[in-house]
Amino acid sequence: MTFRLCYLLAASIFILLIPGLSEGGKLLVVPMDGSHWLSMKQLVLKLMDRGHEVVVLIPEVSWQMGKGQSYTVKTYPVDYTLEDLDNSFAEYLSVHLNSQPFPMNALALYNVSKRTFGVFLSQCNNIFRSTEIMQYLNQSDFDALLTDPIALCGATLANYLSLPFIFFMRGFPCSLHYDAPQCPSPLSYVPRLFTFNSDNMTFFQRVENALIALLELVYCNGFYEEGLKFSSQILQRDVSLLDLLNGASIWLLRYDFVFEYVRPVMPNMVFIGGINCAQGKPLPKEFEAIVNASGEHGIVVFSLGSMVSDIPMKKAREIADALGSVPQTVLWRYTGKVPSNLPQNVKLVKWLPQNDLLAHPKTRAFITHGGSHGVYEGICNAVPMVLMPLFGDQMDNAKRVESRGAGLTLNILEMTSEDMSNALKTVINDKKYKENIKRLSELHLDRPIHPLDLAVHWVEFVMRHKGAPHLRPAAHDLNWIQYHSLDVIAFLLAVVLLSLFISFKCCMFCCRRCCFKKGRTSKPAKSKSH
Amino acid sequence: MTFRLCYLLAASIFILLIPGLSEGGKLLVVPMDGSHWLSMKQLVLKLMDRGHEVVVLIPEVSWQMGKGQSYTVKTYPVDYTLEDLDNSFAEYLSVHLNSQPFPMNALALYNVSKRTFGVFLSQCNNIFRSTEIMQYLNQSDFDALLTDPIALCGATLANYLSLPFIFFMRGFPCSLHYDAPQCPSPLSYVPRLFTFNSDNMTFFQRVENALIALLELVYCNGFYEEGLKFSSQILQRDVSLLDLLNGASIWLLRYDFVFEYVRPVMPNMVFIGGINCAQGKPLPKEFEAIVNASGEHGIVVFSLGSMVSDIPMKKAREIADALGSVPQTVLWRYTGKVPSNLPQNVKLVKWLPQNDLLAHPKTRAFITHGGSHGVYEGICNAVPMVLMPLFGDQMDNAKRVESRGAGLTLNILEMTSEDMSNALKTVINDKKYKENIKRLSELHLDRPIHPLDLAVHWVEFVMRHKGAPHLRPAAHDLNWIQYHSLDVIAFLLAVVLLSLFISFKCCMFCCRRCCFKKGRTSKPAKSKSH
């Protein structure tokens, strides 16, 4: 603890001194709505603090963006309402909460994801349709563009404006965030997203991993089809997914190998997992009172993330039952109808200071949907987790925490009240979980520089040097056959086969000569007999 | 300049604050003699400053080690003299300076390298033979072992003492520093050491690269044969090169991608290229006087490294001729017989403050053998280079600098006086070289943390956490076939072929049934005719 405090003090002084160095660049930010924005906002605020002119391009209608605008905001008109946006997400979520057999579930997921992607694509369309915005962007002399590229819009805009660009993200589907920067992903120990495998796979899991990788070739092209059509139209050339993405100067990835499986990486990937973990602040009075009243048993923090604060009543009742079975006070972020069986020890709140609560020494467990922000806050504050993944990368995150022995995963669709109660009691009472998460936390926090400062450094690096071309691998100039040396293998094989063939022919020729000689010398009688 | 100064100030304060955090561990250091020791010594001194107990294990007879012992030294007796050591290096160097046709040169190099390696192996043998040393090591409770592993001794000792270990190095032959941590090295754009290719290879260079990689399978096993026999004997089990090396917790590699070709890396590789670049200090009076007297033309710094200060007289005369052709004052580190044609503008010195001279604004060029320390000092101080590589990785280093347009390479065996004169004039007068090295320098120095502090962090990390098992890829648990998914490919191929075969058989069966039916219905007459 002393170590961490001293470290933070030293780091703060180091960072306080740095602002004097920055000469003030001009950065365009194209963010992604929803929870994606939460950690990017911290980076934007820090860059503002350091004297840069940061312009955030946001739609007039959004969930998380636009609030608390201490940064410069440029809004563009959109052709949908907040209700449309909410309905789109509600539809997306409902598909995840509906239990359907395979392959119906996969197909439904694919279709709803494509429709949700369509909403973000329409945002992008709105930017390029707005003459005022485009005129502003063309006339502003930006040094670089920072974007969460999941919806491709930032990458399209950066290519259009010929700006060096930085990606800030958790990950693409289909491992595009590894394929685009030409990073090898050996299928034998690097599990593909959504397989829920660990890095230690059985033979059949490895077969599954290979099949999923093959399937992804179709999946992502289909998924991004409309987006690519749009980008091609804007950039007036045919662009593939990799064309559009491989120009990123730096990939700021919200990953840390304490939590992620170890794998090859590239020098222009910067790992900033845990960037959202702030130091715990004192709790607001009403929360402080609840925590203090919890006695020796302490509290449990329960949140399904910034996007989900309501669930079907049947599920809510089951969960309420389970929460009543533990002696801890449970703080549950929930905005739905109050379940009639809500136990005494459960306090429903519309919002909670998640990181500050997790940092409180009385917190015994964290019930989470497994979103990456929450999981990193759980790790930073060393709180064992019960994970109920809903969508996106959450199942993979949950499996990673479980594989490290720092939490237990439940299937929210199939779990019973008893399952949840057991899981919660286990992570609280079995010391192994607390020990494991404490070890992960210590490893995660023992780093030479805070992820936020690292992200700031690399954004400024790209602004100062107009990109980072020295970190671009020469692999980008090779085609698939050349990259995998298939032409070299074919050539060497041809040389070997030709050599063998010539040697064989020579041997045959020599043998024939010998036989012929023998024939001439040893069997003259026979010749004569004809 | 202001930027760099502010940055260094901030970094220094950050680092000054950190010592208070360290709780003082106990580190065993097994270094490598020669220039290898120069930058490791800086790390050792810094770790000492931070309150750790650092024990450096060195032979009684050595070139560079043992001097200025502010660190704790433990010496062990050896069965050779300093003269033996010098003769061994002289023999090693002479093979490089003798022009022989291929494959005689390659064979001679292989043999002399193996003999030189034998000297370092005998050092290792001496450690394990010394009862006193082994007793001391067994009884001391070290937290970790830091070693330059090129001669395998440190890795053997760490395995023997079951200590977590950190490698500090420039690189192994045969890319072992990538193979051992399971880092992919695509042959299509990652040039093997000693091929002198860049990352942008023609088809035939790629063929050459593949053939060299094949050859290395034989080369390194032969080269390290005796060393592995020794390690197997000590560890009482059969160890392969990869077995011995893959346990390293962290690989501190003296690489920077400003200078190196971009390629995949692994999370436990930490890049500390330029760790040896200190901020330029004021020059000693005698050097200050020479530099000041050089007038508007400035000076040229000429050194063939810490190990080579003498060359054959014929070569020395040629070089002296070339140096006389430029108006700059040349400071040449040279201890041999003074060439009779030594021009007025050349000052011979037995030692020179290389980094401080390179940092002087009057320095116009750096003539170097291309050792990695010198090259990084050239980059840090933005001085264009003329490179005359002698041995080891120097030719590769030289080619890298040349490929970045920051210097010119000469073949010391074949160059004429005119070649050298032309090269020197070109790098001084063609502004392109100064611009390129300035750009490299700016990119290299723009980093979030100084390489020395980064190295300190990771050594302390391993000491604090008894290793870094969370950075060990699961690939270590796979065999070659599994790693490359050959079993999965074979299985999937078998399934596809079997499916095709069954489908084909079914089709055939159906066809036959159809034909048979047709036969029975349409040709009854013929049947009857029999």
From TrEMBL, chains A, B:
It is a single-pass membrane protein. Its main location: endoplasmic reticulum. GO terms for molecular function: glucuronosyltransferase activity. Its EC number is 2.4.1.17. InterPro entries: UDP-glycosyltransferase (IPR050271), UDP_glucos_trans (IPR002213), UDP_glycos_trans_CS (IPR035595). The chain crosses the membrane at residues 488-511. It catalyses: glucuronate acceptor + UDP-alpha-D-glucuronate = acceptor beta-D-glucuronoside + UDP + H(+). It comes from the Eukaryota. Gene3D superfamilies: Glycogen Phosphorylase B. One of its GO terms (cellular component) is endoplasmic reticulum membrane. It is found in: Endoplasmic reticulum membrane; Membrane. PROSITE patterns: UDPGT. Keywords: Endoplasmic reticulum, Glycoprotein, Glycosyltransferase, Membrane, Signal, Transferase, Transmembrane, Transmembrane helix. Residues 1-24 form the signal peptide. Belongs to the UDP-glycosyltransferase family. This is UDP-glucuronosyltransferase. It comes from Cairina moschata (Muscovy duck). The lineage of its organism: Eukaryota, Metazoa, Chordata, Craniata, Vertebrata.
